[in-house]
Amino acid sequence: MSILAGSKGRGYDDSYQEFDSPLMRQLRTEAYGKDIGQHSWVTAQDLEQDASRLKLSRASRLLDLGCGPAGPLAFVVGLAGCRASGVDASANAIAAGRARAATLGPGEVITFQEADLNEPLPFPSASFDVVMSLDVILHLPDRGAVFREVARVLVPGGRFLFTDAGVITGSISDEEMRLRAVHGPNHFVPPGFNERMLELAGFRLLESADRTLSLLQNARGRLAARLAHRAELEKIEGSANFERQQRYLETVIGLSDRGAVSRMMYLAESHTA
After folding, report:
1. Which CATH number fits domain 14-167+185-211+262-270: 1.20.1250.20, 3.40.50.150, 3.40.50.20, 3.40.50.2300?
2. Could you read off the pLDDT of 163-178 as tens digits, one per residue?
3. What is the pTM of this model?
């Protein structure tokens, strides 16, 4: 993620202070099945498939927008052996990302920049062959502007892959909307909106896929893992914040289970000359 959480509960930046503690690693293992340092709805299996979609090679230059502590980014770099950069608004996430990147092989290099994705990207035009952004676009108010910036920093024919866990595909109540957005700004969109914004930004959509099932499995896994470690988590989060997070996950599960909100993957190619 790249947007700071609102005033309720622990802030986005604070959430990464203990990201790689033994407890957090255990929670991720129980929730996801495989701990790659993920911080949203990402799975290792999805990333393995996406790396092939992105046609990464050792010569590729990869950018991750809203990289968080860089677990998924480091995983992809480990698969492809490419050069990469990560951008995030959180200083704590960047620090965790640098620590994770230091464990990679000598030829696998990741650089990081702290930046606000609501502003122009801090890179020259045509700096990257591939851009990815996992479960971040939902939190940005002007995704059209973001897509235009992505098109600018990509080489012509470069690939852009992102996931959006906020595509409205059914009815949702105001209370569910409030609970779903407890971690900060959320900008839900109807089907077709992302496709239209990509086209206006100079992209050609290559593929889209519904990944709500993996989100549902992850949310259930996280809910159960947190409940199993309730006492330990309440010491860190406090009882009120623990309950708030459980309600959030319950809401995500309910909305996903009945098809009201979907998580979609989009793969696009820049044809901006």
Report:
1. 3.40.50.150
2. 999 999 999 999 999 9
3. 0.92
